[in-house]
Amino acid sequence: MADQQLPIPAEQQLNIELTEEMADGTYANLAIITHSFAEFVMDYVNVMPNMPKAKVKARIVMTPQHAKRLMKALIENVKRFEGQYGVIKDQETPALPFAFNGPAGQA
Fold first, then answer.
1. What is the 3-state secondary structure (H, E, C) of the chain?
2. pLDDT tens digits, the chain, 107 residues: what are they?
3. What sign does the CA torsion over 21, 23, 87, 71 have?
4. How far apart are the C-alpha atoms of 64 and 76, rounded to whole Å?
């Protein structure tokens, strides 16, 4: 039996706006995740080869409940991606000697 989605009544629909500036997105190849009892803080960084310094390009702060929903959504989407395009091969992650000079993710 195929998954069927019921139509969402108009009064329950959420209108999400994507500005031109945000539509381009921001590339990141490193995520630094910290947490406190009340929130998860995810800093997204673009680390360039042979560059000793990198800046945080985006910071997302969310509740632990939303972080868990994000994790489940990522797991589901990776499964769908791999079903369509094949298994994503893990690459050995090089050890990055870096210092994170920003505020701690505490509430």
1. CCCCCCCCCHHHCCCCCCCHHHHCCCCCCEEEEEECCCCEEEEEECCCCCCCCCCEEEEEEECHHHHHHHHHHHHHHHHHHHHHHCCCCCCCCCCCCCCCCCCCCCC
2. 555 666 766 678 899 999 999 999 999 999 999 999 999 999 999 999 999 999 999 999 999 999 999 999 999 999 999 999 999 998 876 666 566 666 665 54
3. positive
4. 18
Give me the residue label for tokens 């994000």.
70
Place of tokens 């009544």: 9
Q: Which amino acid is at 42?
A: M
